[in-house]
Amino acid sequence: MRFGLFFQVPESTGQPHAARYAEMFELIELAESLGFDVAWLAELHFGGAFSLLSNPLMVVPVIAARTRRIRIGTAVTLLPLHHPLSCAEQAATADLLSGGRLEFGVGRGSIPTQFHGFRIPVAENRARFDEALAIIRLAWTQDRFSYRGTFWDVDNLEVVPKPLQRPHPPIRVGVHTPESFAHIGDLGLPIYSGTTTTPLPQLRECMAHYRTHLAAAGHAWQAEQMALMFPMHVDTSGAAARDAMRPGVLQYYRNVQAIFSQLPDSYGEHLPRLKMIEETVANLPYEKFCREQAMFGDAAEVVDRLQAARDEFGLAQIIGWFDQGSQLPRAEVERTLRRFADQVMPKL
């Protein structure tokens, strides 16, 4: 079992943006010393209330320079928003400068403000994702190559540098809808999912789709097939953990609401989703969230629930989001990281 931790880095009142990055770097250094294996960085655009991490690939070498062992992943690089040749160059450079520690997490994205900002139709996200990933893999594995696609053409180019890891950094695809689980199962690629977007009841159905399509396409289940992210908090008691995280969970949904509220009227098809978010903010179903999406509890409770999830979903990696909503004092974030490393990780 490998263990990761997830960062989204929203703005925080009274803290400059540089200070938010510095805090993330310090927490990753601590996590490495505690035995965590991977630090995962979101890619999100056009809303500091939600995240300041608009270019995680640029951050990878900075983290590598401050650490020795921990791997650095993108969760996820939004391929439809990038030119695939530029993305191949940036990711390969990040892999070189990190000493071969890049975990290349990719996805198609679904937050409409990001597509609106880059003037890319949301409806094209899956087709653009498939084409971009195919080009990136060719760029990394061929000396020169050509490609003719719907969105991009490549004419006999050599893309440099090549990644340090050969044939390329590990690729893991972020998925959260039944269609995505099925599609990536057809491709046979390892996956990353999170209970913030795919609660456990839905995840059970989605994983059935994934396994069915994986097998039907002739792909064997591999050791690193599945990584899963949970909002995580370990405290002295279950009640203390849940009380500590309630403000952060509510703030997370407020941040989501802020992002979706910025859409122009032309995105009317997303108004039902915004309405659901507004209802969640007005009447947070916190007990249900704790049951179906979070791992908040004392060490014994978190161990039991993570062991069950590990066995049910065949997890190769458990990823914790240790300060969802960024409402915990810094000292408390460090305490929960230490509790998780000392009391939970050895039992898994």
How would you describe what is shown here?
The protein has 348 residues and is an alpha/beta fold. It has helices spanning 17-34, 56-66, 84-97, 112-118, 125-141, 178-187, 200-216, 238-261, 271-282, 286-292, 299-313, 330-344; strands at residues 2-7, 38-41, 71-74, 77-78, 102-107, 145-148, 153-157, 171-174, 191-194, 226-234, 295-297, 317-321. α1 links the parallel β1 and β2. α3 packs across α5. It is globular and about 60 Å long.
Present the secondary structure layout.
Blueprint: E1 2-7, H1 17-34, E2 38-41, H2 56-66, E3 71-74, E4 77-78, H3 84-97, E5 102-107, H4 112-118, H5 125-141, E6 145-148, E7 153-157, E8 171-174, H6 178-187, E9 191-194, H7 200-216, E10 226-234, H8 238-261, H9 271-282, H10 286-292, E11 295-297, H11 299-313, E12 317-321, H12 330-344
Parallel strand pairs: 1-2, 1-12, 2-3, 3-5, 4-5, 5-8, 8-9, 9-10, 10-11, 10-12
Antiparallel strand pairs: 6-7
Helix pairs in contact: 1-12, 2-3, 3-5, 6-7, 8-9, 11-12
Task: Quickly list its features.
348 residues, alpha/beta, TIM Barrel, eight-stranded parallel β-barrel, two-stranded antiparallel sheet, 12 helices, 12 strands, 48% helix, globular
